Amino acid sequence: MTPPGKRYRIGPGQLAAFASALIADGYVVIAESPDGKGFTALKDGSAVAPDTERPPTALSMKDIVFPRAEPVFLYRKTLDDVQVIDPPSPPRGVVTFGVRPCDAASIQTLSKVFDWDYHDELFDTRAERTIVIGTLCRFTDDRCFCTSVGLSPSSTKGSDLFLLPLDDGGWILQIVTDKGSRFVARCLSAFSETDETGEDLVKRYPGPAVRFDPDRIRSWIPANFDHPLWPSLAETCLGCGQCAFACPVCHCFDLIDEADSFQHGRRMKIWDACQFPLFTKHASGHNPRDTQVKRYRQRVSHKFFIYPERFGEILCTGCGRCSRGCGVGIDIAEIVEQIEKTAVAESVARER
Amino acid sequence: MPNLYTPHAMVIREIIPETPDTTTFRLQFKDAEVARAFTFRAGQFAEYSVFGEGECTFCIASSPTRMEYIECSFKQYGRVTTALRRLNVGDIIGLRGPYGNFFPLEEMEGKNIVFIAGGIGLAPVRCVIWNVLDLRDRFKEITIIYGARSVDDLVYKRELKEWADRPDVKTIVTVDPGGETADWKGEIGFVPTIVEKAGLRGTDTVAIVCGPPIMIKYTMPVLTAQGFADKDIITTLENRMKCGVGKCGRCNIGSVYVCKDGPVFTYAQLKELPDEF
Ligand SMILES: Cc1cc2nc3c(=O)[nH]c(=O)nc-3n(C[C@H](O)[C@H](O)[C@H](O)COP(=O)(O)OP(=O)(O)OC[C@H]3O[C@@H](n4cnc5c(N)ncnc54)[C@H](O)[C@@H]3O)c2cc1C
Ligand code: SF4
Ligand code: SF4
Ligand code: FES
Question: Which residues of A touch B52 (CB under 8 A)?
């Protein structure tokens, strides 16, 4: 097996040939869809080369490992019995090309919650069967902030293999994980090993300037649950949930039944969002998060306080999807900046 | 692909109407193997389901000292609880669990125990009551204070009588003013008032309190005034849940997952939480 860290040179056109060969072998090859809305399975390899000068897709790649809707079981009822039937096994051999660092990083983050105690076999199996080929991201806009949450346009977190696009149309392929190494072993003969690190390329794309330090707001949040800043931060939020559905690391879901008839149906695990008014509503009518301000506070808290507290990392990769898609222009980075400013001002005031 | 959301099949063996809107099911695992492997502790909950309607969360209302069956008591509210009420003896429902933490029974040994419950809140408390009564000699004085809106709304009526008849248990049952019938022999008054009148002493005593939020809110100060330390008052939270296993993100209060870190909390722990329950 080729140890992680080795690099190979892929010539112009070779990537498409590689993808086509995978498809011919029965792999499910996935890449950003041409309309930029999400990821899609390719019929042939010609369109596989990632174009990371485009903005990130509207929906992240989490759909692949944590589908927006999937059955957890099927059932068949007779008059006096019920048979519970396992759902179909997730597809094997899924290869996702051109995943940006702010998407690839999400898989490890998601797996922390799907595996911290009880194991979600559905997520685990999909993640296990998916090869993530990350790519240097050459896009930045004023919604991006990966560098403020510990990532960068070239970070390989969550990628099994990583591609650096060369000026001649070719690529440097870096082997990141053992899983990636096992996967490419079969095709490496087509590529030549290289000492090029692509360092100059990486330097050319430093990503957005650092905007905030998430550690500064982490302890401020629990100590300031009722701070007057909260209502001013997100009072225009519509509670539409776009931000959560677009987010690569939001993982709230619902379990609901779909009956086809009296006899047949299935229980579905479907995306849900803490921004919806009914999310926490008790059957009695009592609702602990009865205002949008409380629900937006939960969104920020979960990402920058709760998750870091429970799982040791920030629940945000800085991809900017939530802000780009928000109908009323709420920008999570701006909100975190405002909290940071308040937290710093208050701590300065205390020290005086 | 079998997975953690797959329920066990349970057969409804008995249906006990408790009040006009509350029912108790006595359930048995369809698969004897599963039944043998199933264990739980008092205070834990499960996800019960009607196939085609969905799941909902109830505590396990029977005691782990009586494993021939699992019981749950539920109040009819919405889709699933309405569908449950339409079922008959012999029908199959689903169950996943047990989930969550439990009452610290070992730590309660050698102490006086006061059970305080309101309405359907008696369901989780009843599980501990039978657990404690089945191990009676490990505990000192036992007091049960239970209240409901009206005589009609009292659950587990036959057991209330059984407890009242026992010389080793002090049982006080109350109904809200106006909820009494002509022949009502119990107390009349709200639970916090009755707790105040009961003259409890917080020393060497653990209080288990479950009921509607309003009852909890007004009972806690009464217990504090009677000398109960915050760590000796134990209650359960009922935040809305879906997965029950710390994944779906629904039950968070601050960084606490009620389904994993709860549903059992001491009053001392509750005071540390943000006001989101
Ligand atoms: C740990 C724990 C223990 C509990 N123990 C008990 C117990 O022992 N006994 C008991 O009676 N109850 C108990 N409960 C409460 C019980 O879980 C609820 O009463 C029950 O789930 C109601 O289910 P339902 O399907 O009938 O109501 P639903 O129809 O699910 O309605 C419940 C809530 O869902 C909302 N809702 C309805 N439709 C939708 C929709 N389309 N989309 C989104 N939201 C919707 C409603 O607004 C309502 O607030 C417990 C709860 C917890 C968390
Ligand atoms: S996308 Fe914007 S409006 Fe919609 S829930 Fe998120 S923050 Fe609120
Ligand atoms: S919270 Fe927004 S910026 Fe952060 S990962 Fe999710 S969608 Fe991207
Ligand atoms: S009920 Fe799903 S996380 Fe607690």
Answer: 75, 77, 257, 259, 262, 265
